[in-house]
Structure formats: C-alpha cells, structure tokens
C-alpha cells in the first residue's frame, strides 16, 4: 500500500510540478514584461475568480470525489450529469448578477468592468476539467490524470508566451493564456465524459438535492478559504496600492511551491484514506501514515526556506527583490495549509462539512481582523503575519476535530 501511495505521489507530484512550472517559469517573464501595478491587477482578477468559484461551481468536484465511492455505475453517471446542470444554471444566474453590478464591483475591487463581466465565464471554464480530473483521481488513474493535466499546462504556457512576450499584451495576455487553456481542456474533457457514457441516456435529477446540500453547506467553508486567499491582497490594494500587491503576489507565488507538495500528496493520499476508512482498517496504521506525511511536509518547508536566497537571486527580476521580506511568513502559512489538508479528508468522508464550514468561516473572520490590525502597524509584512497565524489556527482546530471524530467512529 505504501509503495502504491508513493508511486501515486510521485506521479501527482510530477504532474503538479509541471503545472506549477508554468507560473514559476512565467514569474521571471511576467516580472520583466508586466509592471508591478499591472501584476497586482492580474492577481486581483485571480482572487475574484477564487471567490466566485465556490458560489458558482458549488464544490461539485468535491461531491463527485466522495460519491464515487458510494454510488453504482449508472447512478454515478447521473450524479455527474446533475452536477453539470447545476453549475450551468448557476453560471447563467451569475452572468445576470454581475452585469447589473459590474461598475460598482469594478470601482470596489480595482479591476476593469470588462473583466468583471468575464468573471463568470472564466469560473465556469474550470468545471469540466475539474470534474474529469477528480474522477481520474478517485478511480486512481494517475497516468490519465497526468496526461490531461499536462495537455492543459502546455497550452497554458504556449498561449501565455505568445500573448505576453511575442504580442506584448501584458497582463491581459496572461489571462488569455490561462483561460484559453481552460477552454481547450473543457473541449477535451467533454469528449472524455462522453466516452464515459455520461451523456448517453436521459438521466434522473434525483441527485440534485444531494449536490446542493453538499455544495451549499460548504459555501461558508469555501468562502472562508477564499477570504483568506484574497483578503490579504484586497487589504494591501486598499491601504498601500496595487504596486504593493504586485510585490506581495510574487512572494506568494514563490512560496506556493510548498502548496505544490501538499496538493500532490493529498491527491494520492485522499482516495487511499477513503478506502481505509470505508473498510475500517487499523486506526494505528492510519495515524502513523498521517504523521509520516506531516513530518515530510515540515522537512520540505525547511529545505525551501534554506534555498530562498537562491530562488530570489536567479528566478525573480531585481525590481521585485523586496518581495523576499514576505516569503518566509507565507511559506510557513503554506506549510500549515498543507497539514490542514491532511485532516479535512476525514471530515469530508464522514460528511461533516457543516463543522468544517464553521471552523473555516470563523478562521476567515479572524483573518480579516488580523489583516486590519497588522497592516496598519507593520504594513505589507503584517498581512503575511496574518496569513501564517490564520492557517496555523485552521490546522489546529481541524486536526483536533478530525481526531475526535475518528476516535468516536472507531469506538476509542
């Protein structure tokens, strides 16, 4: 089992590493071709999409990943189709809403109103690829997962390079590259779902309530996570300007290498853990595996921090070097986030999403308070402090809750 997990971690790690190479390779390119203020607008657009995603997509990929282990073949196909229909209706509703409030949001957030109008489309383009990937992950088909992901990655890099470097379209070129790749992978994803027989017969809508229950219960959790992901940059933009957002975002992107490992391990560990929990395997074995992964995360974070001078010397343009001040605190935050991922799986399996929602939303409120207080006292580095502290609190509360829940399930 450990060998299989290690093999899957290697494949997911390689794929996610390759995917992360696009923003990582693009980082020295973007920092040369895009001004800090434009980089800030680009990042603010990304954070708006992060905020909109749980509201529009309703976490259908998470619901599908859990129901894969609970539903029969035909029922699972119906479930996937129901999920697609729910997100399509949600997309149309948000198109109308954002058309009405586009100018207000543009002034509030600091991005052009034309981009505000495109936010629902950018968000919806993610749904097909996320569903295909989560099915490959749940069915433990990492090679197919890898091929699909690498296709999107190569298109992303190719289009971004053409639009940003060759055509000189700046941050708009980067946006065109990212979502041109999502559009291409959506077309391929529809073909994959068709071959899975998802669309072959009229399907029942009986799973729609289940999808909404799962997704709506997770909205506070997701919004809490998104508030944490975007509040830092919104506070910086409001108090210090979009140029400072650009510096902070570069450090954030560099520190995200920790999140790369956390995500890769979780993609391999999640399905395995679900199988172990379903069979009620030995609790001691599960606990030891979880501890081993956590120790590995800590070691990796230490190595990355030790290499921080080299990362900023060779990968970041000189005009962005002051971003290194924020790097260590953000890296620590990503470490706690990776540890947090290990324990959210338990709550997902036992469908305790309401508990997770309360914890996450409470953490988001804490993050807003910390951002407000610390940015005024310490400036941008205060926001980095806030990120690390909040993710530490998330990790502690979710880990304690998951362990109590697990002991109760095993009668310990």
Entry summary:
With 412 residues, this protein is mainly α.
Outline the secondary-structure elements:
Blueprint: H1 2-33, H2 36-57, H3 60-67, H4 73-109, H5 113-124, H6 127-138, H7 142-166, H8 170-195, H9 208-240, H10 242-255, H11 257-278, H12 283-306, H13 308-315, H14 324-349, H15 353-378, H16 380-409
Helix pairs in contact: 1-7, 1-11, 2-4, 2-5, 2-8, 2-9, 2-10, 3-4, 3-6, 4-5, 4-9, 6-7, 6-8, 7-8, 9-10, 9-15, 9-16, 10-14, 11-12, 11-14, 12-14, 14-16, 15-16
Task: Explain this structure.
By secondary structure, this protein is an all-alpha fold. The chain has one domain (2-409). Helix content is 87%, strand content 0%. The chain is built from 16 helices and no strands. It has helices spanning 2-33, 36-57, 60-67, 73-109, 113-124, 127-138, 142-166, 170-195, 208-240, 242-255, 257-278, 283-306, 308-315, 324-349, 353-378, 380-409. The chain is globular and about 55 Å long. This is Oligosaccharide flippase family protein.
Tally of alpha and pi helices = 16
- Indicate the percent of residues in helices: over 70%
Tertiary shape: globular
Return residue spans where pLDDT drops below 50 for at least 5 consecutive residues: none
Order of helices and strands: HHHHHHHHHHHHHHHH
Mean pLDDT score, rounded? 82
How many discrete structural domains? 1
Major β-sheet profile: none
Counting DSSP E segments of at least 2 residues, the number of strands comes to: 0
Radius of gyration (Å):
21 Å
Structural class: mainly alpha
Strand content: under 5%
Q: Between the first and last Cα atoms, what is the distance in angstroms?
A: 25 Å
